[in-house]
Amino acid sequence: MMGRATKVISGTAISAKIRQQIKDNIDSVVALTQTTERPALGMIMVGDRQDSRLYVEAKGRACAEVGIRAENRFFAQSTTQAEILRQVHAFNADPTIDGILIQMPLPATIDEKAVVDAVLPTKDVDGLHPYNVGELAMRRRTPYFTACTPEGIVEMLDQEAVPIAGRVAVVLGRSDLVGNPVGMLLRKRHATVISCHSQTTQIENLVRQADIVVSACGVPQFVRGEWLKPGCVVIDVGINFVGNDMVGDVCFNEALGIASAITPVPGGVGPMTIAMLMRNVCKSFHRRVTTGDVTAE
């Protein structure tokens, strides 16, 4: 271990500040437009997975905290795809619903792609619709929404005044939820992005080049301290369990003294994801009450 002081970036603290800003923004929009409306998030969950229910409940609490109305729809495991699509279309058609969230995973009997594709891009506050992903991928285009975890990662870097333009960013993982979109976001911010995945060889040599490391590979304590470039910033997206202990993808203790900053697990990226979801709903609400644009294809 080197003698460098490593800052532990608190996603909990940053997200609390952002949630307060969101609450203030909602109150301001309501006052300025003299509307009686409040933003609303429609959430759809299928099945009885305890972790999914906990996530939905956490999002519901966050909604209440900032002044967003949560409209939860819970469906049994045996629910058909047609029934779920009917609920999506009902939320699409409801002008008082500003955002739609499909709690993943869905049962194997339901085509996730078909459900995600059915959500209006203007209500796709999870940033998963092909329209929004395509807009993110293209230069000089702006999606209605970006996936919440990647947006939260970049927000953390900005809050900590971490330079992105011209820096080398190594992203471990290529999922649609995190790896791919965070790479696109960083590229839009003029980083040189290296994407690593299960077929990448000599990953440690690539990580050693990184000024910014984003690990979202889902392998507990995969990234070793000796892989890190001194002074780099490490964003650990991993949520893994070793016994009863929650750990990230990065060997946290090994990174201390080498990285200039690192996010902890828990208390790092997780709270930022929910904060960005709230911000996306607020953004959609603002567009609705100021322009009336709620159902544009």
Automatic annotation (TrEMBL):
Could you give a GO molecular-function term held by this entry? methenyltetrahydrofolate cyclohydrolase activity
Pathway the protein takes part in: One-carbon metabolism; tetrahydrofolate interconversion
Q: Name one GO biological process term.
A: tetrahydrofolate interconversion
**Sorted alphabetically, which Pfam families does this protein's record hold?**
THF_DHG_CYH, THF_DHG_CYH_C
What positions does the domain Tetrahydrofolate dehydrogenase/cyclohydrolase NAD(P)-binding occupy? 147-287
Which controlled-vocabulary keywords does the entry list?
A: Hydrolase, Multifunctional enzyme, NADP, One-carbon metabolism, Oxidoreductase
Q: Does the keyword Oxidoreductase apply?
A: yes
List residues of the Tetrahydrofolate dehydrogenase/cyclohydrolase catalytic domain: 9-126
Gene Ontology cellular component annotations, sorted alphabetically? cytosol
Fill in the subunit field for this protein: Homodimer.
Q: Which HAMAP family match?
A: THF_DHG_CYH
Annotated protein name in UniProt: Uncharacterized protein
Q: From what organism does this protein derive?
A: Aphanomyces astaci (Crayfish plague agent)
List the lineage, top down: Eukaryota, Sar, Stramenopiles, Oomycota, Saprolegniomycetes
